[in-house]
Amino acid sequence: MTAHTAFVIVGASLAGAKAAQTLREEGFDGPVALLGEESERPYERPPLSKGYLLGKDERETVYVHPEPWYAEHDIDLHLGSAVTAIDPDGHEVALADGSRIGYAKLLLTTGSSPRRLTMPGAGLDGVLYLRRLADSDRIRESFASASRIAVIGAGWIGLETAAAARAAGAEVTVLEMAELPLLRVLGREVSQVFADLHADHGVDLRFGVQIAEITGDGGRADGVLLADGTRIDADAVIVGVGITPNTGLAEAARLEVDNGIRVDARLRTSHPDIHAAGDVANAFHPLLGKHIRVEHWANAVNQPQVAAKAMLGQDVVYDRVPYFFTDQYDLGMEYTGYVDPGGYDQVVFRGRRDSREFIAFWLSADRVLAGMNVNVWDVTDPIRALVTCGHPVDPAKLADPDVPLDDLLERPGPVGS
User: Fold this and answer.
1) What is the DSSP letter of 67?
2) pTM for the structure as a whole
3) Residue 18 and residue 81: Cα distance in Å, rounded?
4) How far from the centroid of its chain's Cα atoms is residue 332's Cα?
């Protein structure tokens, strides 16, 4: 490969694989290298805390492409190949084995890593994190032998692993320093739905707690000690306290970094020949008028397609509304839109919260910022349209199940019309 023809993608992730696929679909026939430090070929992460973790999905279903796909599409897939440096001036990346690969355009899909605990006992065996396929395997193995599981953190990963542990028959205690699960993401009105869901399924929820120590015996975790002296017995401890974007390569290459690699709407970094996509990218969103970093599957699927087209010189921007989903017990949910913590003035519910079959809308000045459908299906498109239309809606009609969502898309006329 020469620095004049090759497209190099650092991060053999879902985002990296989708970028490589798009390059070929868009007719690029030059060299494409996809570099990943893991030994696994690119795979999707949602099953790791959902179907695969529950034992419902076979291992082969998590991979983005069948194994032969990369050779068939002339993608030079390097697994177990950690990139150690980027030389933007020389248009090269350096690998841990000492080799160097030149590029014309570079895409960073380096993803993120779980935040690690630093308290006493954090390094004991049986303290588990979920990010990679091997992590999901270890947690599945723990379900086979652990009768009591403590989950630290009541975010999406914490709640999904708690649900999986309950499905496996374990006693589960969830430990969260906030007053409710997902409070920053959903706000108090909707967070209570998830607290009630897990309580109804027998999870011991402890909110407003601080962790002092993970206790152990013989080098293995056997419980969690809270700051107030309470001890929670556990055969395994699952930690889900957020993720941090993997920006080390970008920082060392002096690219602009601010809560991720800062990119424009074309997903271009501060260097014109380097783009970034997925968890690691803090991208300017044209609809929202600001930079946001989104840590969800839909972003990893769609953003690299735009990045690849931009690298090919196409006039494209990434303006899709954020979307994510979760499955916990008998609750399925999709969320469309974006709301800053506390950035709304009311939540409107359409349907019944008590039966967990409803749509929740977050509004500011009667404009819909986001919508979340819980056990209500085939409404993502009208919810997205309400988010993007930009005009105010009548909250009473929004709450009325007899008023079709599509009817609310019509801009209201002047008063008296």
Assistant:
1) T
2) 0.95
3) 19
4) 17
Enter the CATH code of domain 330-409.
3.30.390.30
| Cβ proximity of 115 and 131 under 8 Å | no
| C-beta neighbour count of 85 within 10 angstroms | 14
Q: Residues of 264-288 as b/e, b for ≥16 C-beta within 10 angstroms?
A: bbbbbbbbeebbbbbbbbbbbbeee
For every one of its 417 residues, what pLDDT tens digit does the chain have, with 9 covering 90 and above? 444 569 999 999 999 999 999 999 999 999 999 999 999 999 999 999 999 999 999 999 999 999 999 999 999 999 999 999 999 999 999 999 999 999 999 999 999 999 999 999 999 999 999 999 999 999 999 999 999 999 999 999 999 999 999 999 999 999 999 999 999 999 999 999 999 999 999 999 999 999 999 999 999 999 999 999 999 999 999 999 999 999 999 999 999 999 999 999 999 999 999 999 999 999 999 999 999 999 999 999 999 999 999 999 999 999 999 999 999 999 999 999 999 988 999 999 999 999 999 999 999 999 999 999 999 999 999 999 999 998 999 999 999 999 999 999 876 544 333
Strand-strand pairing, 290-292 and 281-285: antiparallel
206: nearest Cα among 188, 227, 185, 221 = 227
Instruction: Specify the amino acid at residue 368.
Output: V
Q: In this structure, which CATH number among 3.30.70.330, 3.65.10.10, 3.50.50.60, 3.40.190.10 belongs to the domain 116-241?
A: 3.50.50.60
